[in-house]
């Protein structure tokens, strides 16, 4: 990834999130960033290629944050799952409906690719966690990781596409805690249940 193109894309990302993708033109980008259109077109053939770079940068940054948030050498599957929930809670808070709407309407191919990447990353992290939990004896030995992981993805995706909960309700104290516990209590073994009950007061979602 060209560093200069990446630098431009990260600045444009803020413009897109503030004004929407549709309303920001290449002229606007040139003016706001203080670079000539000639220079801009040296890095991007058109607006579509700029949008794609913005999404690629966003995906790269989010992946880096995920690794920093979730990976820990001195933890277990339950603690790891807590970190996963915390990460997606932060992602939900940063969710920008107008940005997603423009992306879906005007750049459907890029939107579809982004959704697929998100889905694969969530599936990958949850599957890994479920396998780890089974190996540690904290999760039920009879659970089907594929089904549980898909149900988890479905739950996360539905939160951005429902009017059952308002935006305010999604971030009330205790909302994500209930979501976290709802998931865990369905997959814990006796050992995992005892661990969770013993450490529940230390768990903050």
Strand proportion:
under 5%
Termini Cα gap: 35 Å
N to C succession of SSEs: HHHHHHHHHHH
Determine the structural class based on helices, strands and strand pairing.
Answer: mainly alpha
Brief digest:
It is built from 11 helices and no strands.
Q: Would you mind describing this structure in some detail?
A:
There is one protein chain. With 205 residues, the chain is mainly alpha-helical. The chain has two domains: 1-61, Arc Repressor Mutant, subunit A; 72-205, Tetracycline Repressor, domain 2, CATH 1.10.357. Helix content is 73%, strand content 0%. It is built from eleven helices and no strands. Helix 5 packs antiparallel against helix 7. The radius of gyration is 20 Å and the shape is elongated. The mean pLDDT is 90.
SSE topology sketch:
Elements: H1 3-19, H2 26-33, H3 37-43, H4 47-70, H5 77-93, H6 97-106, H7 108-135, H8 145-158, H9 167-170, H10 175-185, H11 190-199
Helix pairs in contact: 1-4, 4-5, 4-7, 5-7, 6-7, 7-8
Task: Describe this protein with a few key phrases.
single chain; 205 residues; mainly alpha; Arc Repressor Mutant, subunit A; Tetracycline Repressor, domain 2; 73% helix; 0% strand
């Amino acid at each position: 990834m060209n560093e200069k193109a990446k630098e431009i894309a990260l600045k444009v990302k803020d413009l897109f999130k503030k004004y929407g993708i549709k309303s920001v033109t290449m002229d606007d980008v040139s003016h706001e960033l203080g670079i000539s259109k000639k220079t801009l077109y040296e890095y991007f053939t058109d607006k579509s290629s700029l949008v794609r770079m913005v999404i690629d940068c966003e995906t790269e940054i989010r992946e880096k944050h995920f690794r920093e948030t979730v990976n820990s050498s001195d933890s277990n599957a339950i603690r790891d799952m807590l970190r996963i929930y915390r990460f997606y809670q932060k992602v939900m808070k940063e969710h920008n409906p107008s940005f997603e709407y423009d992306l879906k309407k005007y750049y459907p191919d890029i939107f579809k690719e982004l959704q697929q990447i998100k889905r694969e990353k969530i599936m990958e992290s949850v599957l890994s966690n479920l396998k780890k939990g089974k190996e540690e004896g904290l999760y039920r030995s009879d659970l089907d990781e594929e089904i549980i992981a898909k149900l988890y993805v479905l739950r996360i995706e539905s939160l951005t596409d429902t009017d059952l909960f308002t935006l305010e309700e999604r971030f009330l104290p205790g909302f994500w805690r209930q979501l976290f516990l709802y998931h865990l209590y369905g997959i814990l073994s006796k050992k995992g249940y005892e661990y969770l009950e013993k450490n529940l007061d230390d768990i903050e979602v």
